[in-house]
Amino acid sequence: MARGEYLQRRETLIFIGNPGLGKTHLAISVALAACRQKRKVRFWTAASLVNELLQAQDEHRLHRFIAAALKMDLIVLDELGFIPFSDTGAQVLFTFCSELYERLAFTITTNLKFADWGQVFGDERLTAALLDRLTHHAHIIELVGESYRFRQRMHEKDDAYAYRFLGIPAGHKERAKKSAPCPAVYPLVSALGLLSSMALSSVRVRRS
Question: Comparing 199 with 32, which gets the higher pLDDT?
Fold first, then answer.
């Protein structure tokens, strides 16, 4: 992905998974890699794109909006599925994606399985038609695991517990590091927190 072959082939990257697994981080990473290759990239959340499309339609400049998007090499569409769209919003997003289909590359992040996309777009036929286009030349990356935010919170809690267990006052991390009675104590604090909260996400990649 970082080498950008999908850009040349005008393919789609779809990152699927629950919140907190790093979908947006991955989408930003491939977008930055494309920028380093001097590609033109545009990033939207799904909700902000739909709002801009609706505004452009109201102002009778939807065609110009889509024409400007066609100058890009990569469109990143983040957080598809978090907010359901109105009928009009779903229709303009479908029009946008249909016009760009096979003319540039997409990167999409979503927390919904494909079977649940109808919850966002409302119309089953429109949803099926959109999925048909987006998954036609797609690399589907499914992320499975526990939210990194949750793991981070658990690590912080377990780290604090480890300090209390060792009799180190809260807020004295650096002091504890410098004044530990033996070199093994400070690493032990971190290890106690890390081992008790460790849960690695896994990634499954499918080629559509």
Answer: 32
